[in-house]
Each structure stands twice: as C-alpha cells, then as structure tokens.
C-alpha cells in the first residue's frame, strides 16, 4: 500500500504545527520522519493514522482519499512510544485484542485468533510469554508485544512513533535491526518517527527531515547525510563545523582558505556560511598553508582521534576527526600550533 500526505496543514489553537506538508511513501518502503522536538513529526504521523484530523489537505492510501476514515477503517497498525499495553490483560490477550473487537462478520473464530496470536508471538520472539502480564516484561519485550498487537490486524501500513525511545541504547539497536527485518519479511509499508539521526539513517530507505512544521528534505540516508540541501539539514545530520565566509564568483573564503561554492557562480561578496564535517578537516604543520589554529584537547578513545582546536584569528572552536595514524605524522598535544585545510565543504548563503 502506498501512502501520500498531500498539502497537509494543522493548527493547534493559534500555533501552526504543520505547514502545507506533502510526502509520498512508496509501497514496501520504510520511511523515517526525523527532526527535533516540536518539528511536527508526531502530528503528521497521527494525521496519517487517522488519530488526528488535518485542517486542510488529503491523506491517500493507494491513491484513495481516506481523510474521513478512522484508524480502524484505514487498517493501520500504530505503535506508541510508551507501551500502550492493557495492564490487566496478559500478552496473548493484548495481541488478540484488535481481532476480538472486530465486528462479528470479519472477526476470526476463537481457534483462528489463537493460531494468529501464537504465530505473532513467534514472530516477535516471545512465544513462551503469552501468559505473562505487561508488568512482568522488560521494556524491550513490551514494545515487541505492542508491535505484535499492531501487526495482528494485518495492517496495510505500520506507523511507529519513537517506539524504542524509552529503551537503553543497546536494546534500541537490537530492536531496530529486528524491526527492519520484520518490515522486509512482511512486506510492510512503514513510517517511523524519531529524533535520533543514527536510528533514521540505519533503519530507513528514505528519510524526511522536518523542521518547524515543514519538510526540509526527503532522500535516502546517503542523500540527507552527504548531500544536505539546506543549512538546517547539514547541521542536524551529525557533527559539523560552521564558518562565516564571503562568497565571490563560485568560491567562498574562510580566512586564508578558499573553498568551492558552485551554487553561487555569480555572487559578489555575499555573506555565507561554510559547513565542514569534522572528518573533512586535515591538520598540517603550522608552517604549511592553511587556517591557523591551536590544539586544545585530544581524545584518543574511540574509532578515531577527535581533536578540539581553537581558531587563531576568531578564537572559535573547531572539531576534527582524524584516523589513529595521524598522530604519527604530527604532534597531537594541547598547545600545538597547526594549519587546517578542508577536504570538503558546503556553502550556504547566510541568513
Ligand atoms: N494537541 C495539541 N495541542 C496543542 N499543541 C500541540 C498539540 N499537539 C502538538 N502540539 C504542538 O505542535 C508542535 C508539533 O508537535 P509534534 O508532537 O508533532 O512534534 P514532534 O516533532 O513529534 O516532537 P517530539 O519529538 O517532541 O514528539 C509542538 O509545538 C507541539 O507543542
């Protein structure tokens, strides 16, 4: 089932939470809605689900406008951040719930419901826990029950609102890989809300980056990370250094460094911002050409070396990520004067 949000706007009191948002999720796709707190991710997801109503615009499932239909009529599976399990029901009863409350004509027989519940508990690897109550489960187990319950109705789309947000980092990682496999095996169409970049990049086929009620960019993880279209996306997708610059004729000047700015071929001394990822910074000896800086801190624990520097002229902080063998070529100790060059930069107009 494909899913389309078309020109969706939503206002709460006088606050506009969504501003003319359009997004298409292809059949079988795993889409992440990524953005900071308050950017409108949950509001968009709830409108897709039919848990909330838009002020204007349409929600289409396989080209059909479902705007007037409820969650149940849309056949949507929804998983909330906080395990919305029924505490007085055991695991099997929780999973069976969506089937038991179906109208008589479409409700499966009790043996069929039992068979489906057993199958789902097997799928979420909780086959021996059917008799337990939610209070007797770990957080990760509870979210797997919530997922089994959402899947019980054989949803056309699966919508997940930060489903692993309350879990610790290791469990979160395991569960997201497992969820991705499940999505593929069951050939679902899924939309997943998160504010965690790593989670979105690892899990999704495409990522929609949201800010202030709008979608800033939709693209593959590779696109949004390596080819951000806006300054916001650049800053949001991982660590980045920001330098004031002046743009002139397709180039930008950061102190003595000149970087390419091909988006501005005919700029005339335009104020700009140059964004440089920490791994795109190279440290050289102080007498070589580059941007003068001094090393402040060196962190060697981790996959590479992280160096915190201070720019000599403006005194602003800069972060560089270097491979471990960089310390063989250069003395990496606090107080060392160095020269910086950039192997990649992206320039945007300021303001
Ligand atoms: N029922 C509501 N009444 C009033 N304002 C609301 C309501 N729901 C959401 N908002 C506001 O709309 C904006 C977007 O909220 P939303 O929950 O969609 O953001 P989000 O990106 O999912 O954030 P978070 O990651 O914190 O959940 C926020 O400023 C929020 O305060």
TrEMBL record:
The keyword Cell membrane applies. Residues 3-237 form the ABC transporter domain. One of its GO terms (molecular function) is ATP binding. Gene3D superfamilies: P-loop containing nucleotide triphosphate hydrolases. Keywords: ATP-binding, Cell membrane, Membrane, Nucleotide-binding, Sulfate transport, Translocase, Transport. It holds the Pfam family TOBE_3. It comes from the Bacteria. The keyword Acyltransferase does not apply. InterPro entries: AAA+_ATPase, ABC_SmlMolc_Importer, ABC_transporter-like_ATP-bd, ABC_transporter-like_CS, CysA_C, Mo/tungstate-bd_C_term_dom, P-loop_NTPase, Sulph_transpt1. SUPFAM superfamilies: MOP-like, P-loop containing nucleoside triphosphate hydrolases. NCBIfam families: 3a0106s01 (TIGR00968). This is Sulfate/molybdate ABC transporter ATP-binding protein.
């Amino acid at each position: 089932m494909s899913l389309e949000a078309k020109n969706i706007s939503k206002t709460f009191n006088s606050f506009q939470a969504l501003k003319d948002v359009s997004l298409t999720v292809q059949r079988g796709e795993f889409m992440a809605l990524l953005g900071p707190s308050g950017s409108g991710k949950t509001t968009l997801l709830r409108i897709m689900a039919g848990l909330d109503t838009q002020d204007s615009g349409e929600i289409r499932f396989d080209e059909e406008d479902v705007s007037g239909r409820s969650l149940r009529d849309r056949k949507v599976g929804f998983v909330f951040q906080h395990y919305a399990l029924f505490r007085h029901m055991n695991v099997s009863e929780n999973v069976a719930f969506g089937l038991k409350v179906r109208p008589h004509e479409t409700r499966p027989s009790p043996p069929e419901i039992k068979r489906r519940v057993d199958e789902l508990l097997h799928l979420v690897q909780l086959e021996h826990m059917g008799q337990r109550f939610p209070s007797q489960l770990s957080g990760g187990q509870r979210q797997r029950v919530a997922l089994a319950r959402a899947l019980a109705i054989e949803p056309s789309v699966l919508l997940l609102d930060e489903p692993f947000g309350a879990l610790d980092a290791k469990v979160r990682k395991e569960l997201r890989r497992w969820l991705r496999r499940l999505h593929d095996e069951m050939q679902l169409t899924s939309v997943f809300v998160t504010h965690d970049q790593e989670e979105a990049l690892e899990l999704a086929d495409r990522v929609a980056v949201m800010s202030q009620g709008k979608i800033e960019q939709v693209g593959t993880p590779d696109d949004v990370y390596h080819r951000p279209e806006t300054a916001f996306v650049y800053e949001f997708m991982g660590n980045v250094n920001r330098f004031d610059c002046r743009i002139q004729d397709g180039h930008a000047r950061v102190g003595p460094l000149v970087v390419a700015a091909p988006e501005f071929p005919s700029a005339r001394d335009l104020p700009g911002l140059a964004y440089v990822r920490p791994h795109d910074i190279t440290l050289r000896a102080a007498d070589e050409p580059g941007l003068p800086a001094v090393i402040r801190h060196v962190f060697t624990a981790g996959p590479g070396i992280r160096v915190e520097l201070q720019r000599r002229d403006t005194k602003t902080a800069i972060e560089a990520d270097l491979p471990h063998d960089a310390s063989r070529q250069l003395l990496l100790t606090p107080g060392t004067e160095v020269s910086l060059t950039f192997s990649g930069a992206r320039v945007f107009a300021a303001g």
